[in-house]
């Protein structure tokens, strides 16, 4: 029982660290391009 709990915990930690590794570049990219170009594209749509 304890071993299964440890495996689940390890999986959660791995998933969280992986999502952090992918979320950081995406956030940086969005800040660099998305936020500055988003209002312009919205105005273009309107």
Order of helices and strands: H
- Strand tally, please? 0
Oligomer: single chain
Structural class: mainly alpha
Please, how many domains?
Answer: 1
- Report the β-strand fraction as a percent range: under 5%
Largest sheet: none
Describe it for me?
The protein has 46 residues and is mostly helical. The chain has one domain (1-44). Helix content is 96%, strand content 0%. It is rod-shaped. It starts with a helix and ends with a helix. 0% of the residues are buried. The mean pLDDT is 80.
Labels describing this entry:
46 residues, rod-shaped
Helices and strands in order, then pairings?
Elements: H1 2-45
Q: TL;DR of this structure?
A:
This protein is mostly helical and 46 residues long. Helices cover 96% and strands 0% of the residues.
């Amino acid at each position: 029982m304890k071993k299964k709990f440890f495996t689940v915990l390890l999986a959660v930690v791995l998933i969280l660290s992986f999502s952090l590794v992918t979320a950081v570049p995406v956030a940086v990219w969005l800040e660099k391009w998305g936020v500055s170009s988003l209002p312009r594209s919205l105005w273009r749509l309107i």
